[in-house]
Design goal:
By secondary structure, the chain is α/β, with parallel strands linked by helices. It folds into 3 domains: 41 residues; 190 residues, Spore Coat Polysaccharide Biosynthesis Protein SpsA, Chain A, CATH 3.90.550; 52 residues, no CATH class. The protein is built from 10 helices and 12 strands. It is found in: Golgi apparatus membrane.
Amino acid sequence: MKTVPQRTRMWILLIVFVFFVAYTALWTASSSYEKVGALRSEPPKKYSWYIPAADYHLDFIISPGEKCKDPDLFLVVMVTSRHAHFEARAAIRETWGNATRIMGYKLATLFVIGRTDDPSLQRTIVEEGRRYGDIVQMDSYESYENLTLKTISALKWTSMNCRQAKFVMKTDDDVFVNYPRLVRTLADFRQTAEEKNLMLGCVVSWAFPVRTPGKKWYMDTDIFPRWLYPPYCIGSGYVMSSDVAHRLYMTSLKVPIVQIEDVYLGICAEKAGIKPRNHPEFGCWKNTAYAYCKFKELLTAHGLKPRDLAEAWADMKVKGDRNCSVKESLLEKFHDLF
């Protein structure tokens, strides 16, 4: 039986490898070209990966500026929501978002939504805004991809209307915010002269871009070529000093939009010289299982439906600020494992 010399086998393997690399590169370039063409053909006011926020000329359809008129405003909270989430907004208004003063510190809670071309839905939203005075409607369409624009719009709105506020928070309408604990935490920062240059939340470091086309968090190398994202706060809830909120907005005017909202804010923070700070009491991931001893020690909890939010709030009001025993805390942690 005739055998192939080792040198010949090596050459064959090398040729096959080179052919495979060349084919992969050509396929990727072709896919990227088709994707870029599709993105650039999108109409105005929709999402694009290639232009900074300044090119969107972000405007507002509804803007309740009177919400931020108080010169002693301590914290303004911008809750990102969607048109149809009436029940979620109602639950927040009836629970944690109902507070306007805690420990003498003044608060304001508002909801940020996108535009709609449905006349009936728009009339309902306008009426909701008139009734509660807490709707900020941006002139960009609702979509998951446009969440970045929605957050930038929130930063722009607070920069225009709430510059006197000491702190700005961005959160979502499925999040429980423990206002009393949050206010105490921010008051401590203020007393230690750390109320400037502050960006506080659940910080993700050492996150790698997803390079597989079609995945939810896919990131094209043409848009973000680096192999590691800068540190960023999880988008479900984070707090900024008002100077940071303004600097992030101004930076976004020059930074091309990225479809992953929290990553984009991390990129803007890096460019603005802002270092996000981790705080262990910000909930990092969705966890809908309410437990009193766990929730009383959190600043935010993510992933609650309106009914869960109402039940959690009612239970916390009944139990007040009582201390939890070691046994209770251990039982709750054990329950979370199953």
